[in-house]
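User: I'll paste a sequence; please echo it back and then give the predicted structure.

Assistant: Echoing your sequence first, then the prediction.
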Amino acid sequence: MTSGNAPLESRQLLIVDDDRLVLSVIASGLTAAGYRVISAESSEEAEAWLASGERPDLAIIDVRMPGRAGLHLAQRLRELDHIPYIMLSAYSDAKTVEAAIHNGALGYAVKPLDVPQLVPAIEAALARSNEMKDLRTTRQQLQAALDSERNINLAVGITMMQHRLKRSAAFELLRTSARSRRCKLTDLASEVIEAADKLNL
């Protein structure tokens, strides 16, 4: 994803709408605003483009389309690298809005659209997406740290039993071994645990 301060032309938007006129107006307006725009007339066409490995910074998806509905595509985007999206609809009923938000939409726009008014919604969605990405990264880092700490403690316990050592001595033995092998303590701990698991089999 691009950062919230990146120039517009560096941001790629995927616009999905079965109405060719609406699609053309939005795509032309956002291209004129400086975005790089990819257009698709159906969820299937959008998924085919995504299957090539391309990833937009943001998708703008019509809720109701023939074939697979926009909410189906929204679910796929969430599964694919948490791609952020805004839902687009000619309907503003509470049930449709609630379904879009429940599926993770970062915005909801009602047709007919004034493209210049859509730009702030796009920027807000991109900023929110970056915040969420940062939170996911922090959470993953914390989880990795917790997993590493748990594995080290478990490896220390195994070493204590195998060599009948006190905790401090077992930890020092593992740390010295890791240094001599020029590997991380967490990697050595994983090896110790794996070896112990194999012996228990």
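The first strand starts at residue 12 and ends at 16. The two ends are 45 Å apart (CA to CA).
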